[in-house]
Design a protein that fits this description.
39% of the residues lie in helices and 18% in strands. The protein is of the alpha/beta class. The protein folds into 2 domains: 5-140, Nucleotidyltransferase, domain 5, CATH 3.30.420.40; 190-377, Nucleotidyltransferase, domain 5, CATH 3.30.420. α1 crosses α3, α10 packs across α11 and α11 (286-306) crosses α13. It binds adenosine-5'-diphosphate (ADP). Residues 200-202, 229, 273-275, 278, 320-322, 325-326 line the site of adenosine-5'-diphosphate.
Amino acid sequence: MESSVLVINCGSSSIKYALVPAAADQPRLAGAAERVGSSDAYLKGSDSHGERFEKALPGADHTRALEAILAHLEGRRPAAIGHRIVHGGEHFTKAALIDDAVKAAIETTAALAPLHNPANLEGVAATGKLFPDLPQVAVFDTAFHQSLPPRAFRYALPEALYRDHAIRRYGFHGTSHAYVSERADALSGIQGGWLTAHLGNGCSTCAVWEGHSLDTSMGLTPLEGVVMGTRSGDVDPGLHAHLSRQLGWSLERIDDVLNRGSGLLGLSGLTNDMRELENAAGEGHEGARLAIDVFCYRIAKSLAALSCALPRLDGIVFTGGIGENSPLVREKVIANLPHFGLGLDRIANAETVRGREGRIDGGHPAAPRLWVIPTDEEGRIAAETRQLLEEITA
Ligand code: ADP
């Protein structure tokens, strides 16, 4: 029986997909429809032989883009659909089988993620039309962090803002932090205390104790925390009033600059792409050097702060495009944590790139471990989908 899960990550103008078989050694079919809803929409991906394809889908909406995706599943019919849903608010502490009540709850939460949740729901509607008899499961980015204690999730704001408007810290990248910390447990043979650093275009850190998230760097929105590709991360909360009063900036402009014009791009004045920044810094570009310095220092500072949540520190895990591929960033983050007794094996650090999983510390038994673990958000969404369906049918 086919027991693949079709994982769908539906944004406002893109749909990422992966058909994930139950057996880890089976090939996945994966790709993305981009610029959905526009005249230059297209689909790209790879087939079961790893061959890449790209196809124009002019004017395709979400349903048509999904139909095109289905045509590239090589006749394989999934057993279920797993949807990445960005915000589950306080309502969802784990994955949920999608029915009308769950859809309504996701809609209610849309006020907290106005760009993401409505687009995610469009994906649910489109797959529901195409596969009316398949179970659909919602897997939330925020669910893993619902184990945060109040001291970590509450802002020091008037209580009514929390009580009446759900303003609190939620955290994101939950499937990634959950996956890599579980993998670190398995590889280390312990239920550990880990600091995980997911460093991609979006970046966040997390403190995980015995499989539970105890604190994380992102908050009400994915803007809080460390420096990201184009997002500022933490700034003085007084900045908004200052930009408004002194420079006359509108809220929209402030929001746009903090989300799309800041971070590595804003600091360097060059690019949000870490590879390009490393090359430019090597050629003496001052902005690129500064951007990398601030980025690494702020990650170290965040990890040090999050270590307060852990009863014991067993190690640090790096993941995401930068965490998996940049020995320079890893080395600089570790150099900024001089009191942690970390030992870096420079050769292992240089060699653990391009999808390799491995330890990059010197192996000293008293020192915290340093792991590089490629993340697998699609695999985790498929696993949670499968697990929930097994629980329901048991
Ligand atoms: P997303 O968050 O969009 O999924 P990724 O996890 O793919 O993004 O991470 C993208 C980032 O990873 C980019 O900044 C890119 O430059 C960086 N990256 C990828 N490969 C390398 C590399 N070899 N060295 C340094 N940075 C890299």
